[in-house]
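Progress narrative, work stream C.
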Amino acid sequence: MALEDLERREPWRRIVFPLDVPAASEAQHWVEELAGCVGVFKVGLELFIRCGPGIVAWIRERAAGGVFLDLKLHDIPHTVGRAMRAIAAGGARWATVHCGENPAMLRAAVEGAAGRVGVLAVTVLTSVSAEHLREAGFEAAWAENPERLVLERARRAREAGCAGVVCSGREAAWVRRAIPRPFLIVTPGIRPGGAAPADDQVRVASAAAAVAAGADYLVIGRPIREAPDPRAAARAIAAEIGRASCRERV
C-alpha cells in the first residue's frame, strides 16, 4: 500500500475526488468529467446507500486509482469484521473504519479485509474542533492538542495492521514523523491557501502544506467541483502537489 512510483511521477493520481452526490447519474457525470485529472474517486454514505455496491463496480472500471469506499464503520468488532469482508468482495481499493474506543474493532476490520482492501482508520474528523472535543468530555491535554489524539489513534491503527489513517493536514507531520511509509496518510479538508472555509470543515490545510507534511493522498471536493472549470482546477492542484512533492521533507 506504499505510495507507488507512478503516483509520485504523476501528481494528479494523488487527488481523491469525493462523489458527494445523491444519484448515480451525477456520480457518473463527475467520473467521466474528471477521468485523467484525478486518480481516485471516493464513495461516501449517501451515494452508497442510494446506489449500493453497483456504483463501486461501475467506478472501479473507469478510475485510474480505484475506489475509496468511505463508510466509516463503527460497531462491535464482529459486525465490523463481517462488514469489511463484504466490502473486500466488492473491489474497493480502500475502506474506512473509525478508530473508536476498542482496538479489537480495528483488528477485526483488518482481518475481514484479508489483504483485499486497504483499511484506513479515521482518527479525528476534520469538522471537529478543540471545543467539540472538550464538549465531548475529553481531558484538556487531549482536547487542546488534537495532534496528540490523532497521533495516539494512528499508532493504534498501525498496531492493528491498518494500511493507514485519515487525518487533517495539520496533524500529518506528527503522524509521518512517528510512522514512516508505507503507512498511508490520506488528508481531507484541503482548501486553497489553507484558508478557513465557510462550510463544516474546521481543521484545514492547503494541498502544498499537506503534501509537505507527509500526506500521501488528498481528498479534494469543493475546490474542484465548484470551480468554473473543474478539470482546470484539478490540473492546477496537481501542479501544486507536484511542486510540493519536490520539496517533501519526509
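Work stream C, second folded protein:
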Amino acid sequence: CVSHAPRTRLYYALDRWCLPRYDHVITVAPSLETAVRELGVPAARCSLLLNAVDELVFVRRAAAAHSPLRAKHGVGAGRLVIGALGRISPEKGFDALIESFAALAGAGHDLELWIAGAGPSRGDLEARIGRLALRERITLLGHVEDTVGLHQ
C-alpha cells in the first residue's frame, strides 16, 4: 500500500473516474491490471507491461569480484553482495529483505546487503539494521544515479 497524504483520497477518486475513460491503460503489475479491469476498463483497452530490467543494458561486463563499488566499500572477492534498488517505503518490503538477510547472515553465510534508494522509511530501516546489529553488513546507499554501475 502507498502512504496516504491528505490529498490521496481525492487523487484515487479522480483515478477511478478517469481510468475507464482513457483510450488505453497500461499497468505494470497483475494486481494493478485486475484493479483497472474492476473499474470497468475493457480488456481490449488494457495492457500489462511488467516492470523489468533490460538485459542488454544490465549485462555484467566484468567479474563481480572486480567491481569498483566493492573496492570503494572494502568488500572482499569472497563475500556475496546482495543488491536491491527501489523507493524506500513500506510497500517495497525492504524490512522483510533485511530480516531474511539477518537469518542468512546468522546462519554463517558470508554476505553483504546494499540497498539503493531514497524514501520515507529510511529511518525505520536504519533502526531495524541497528537492532539486528548488522551495520557492518548492510549499507543503505541512498539515491544512486548510476544503476548500471551498481549492477556491475
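The chain has a mean pLDDT of 89. No further action is required on this item.
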